[in-house]
Amino acid sequence: MSRIGDSLAxxxxxxxxxxxxxxxxLCEVFSAHGAQVIGDTRVMDSGASAEAAVRxxxxxxxxxxxxxxPAPSTRAAEVTDEEFRHVFAHIVDPLPGLCRGALxxxxxxxxxxxxxxxxxxALRGQKRTSSYAAARGAQASYVRAVGVEVAASNVQVNLIxxxxxxxxxxxxxxxxxxxxxxxxxxxxxxxxxxGTAHEDALFAVFLASSEVNYFAGQAISFSGGWAP
Length: 228
Known about the structure:
The protein is of the alpha/beta class. Helices cover 42% and strands 14% of the residues. It has helices at 23-32, 47-57, 81-91, 94-109, 130-150, 173-176, 179-188, 197-208, and strands spanning 12-15, 36-39, 62-66, 112-119, 155-162, 219-222. It has a six-stranded parallel sheet, with helices on both faces. The radius of gyration is 17 Å and the shape is globular. The chain starts with 11 loop residues before the first strand and ends in a 6-residue tail after the last strand.
């Protein structure tokens, strides 16, 4: 009997922002499952840059849209157009380019996976996160629409709505060491801990595996119970 992830052996997996956010651990875990990882490190701030990454990769079986930017904590009444546009440019704008580059070949083969590393802030309101939450919500809505559009062609597009996961962009060691943050974990997260980067990457492996083909356009919370 095959194990989840065995089907990734030899598959070409494009991981964007491979040196930031969840990139390093995603590259490590997908490689450990036998995938041929194409780790792209270019700045992802437009559809054109994302499409160029796919074109450079050539044949891709899986795209992991690892997109992140430090989250502003600006009060809603003080968010500038520049802040709003910056967050959307790095989190939302690359998605159509990734799909323009990857979907035609996946639809032709009637096989393919796109997994977006999103955020549970799209699922639950938080103070002082309006620009970031809006961008993450746009990701989730985009994935829902594209996912149901291509599902009948055996192409799966889904999103991991993560929060409280160890990573240097949002929850690095300096944040974890703060007593106020530890108290927040105990108060807000039913699991009472951060999820590990490895756990998160394994969930991406699960969604990217050919053994798992029945998710379509889903934004799946991965937040220790913080968001539904």
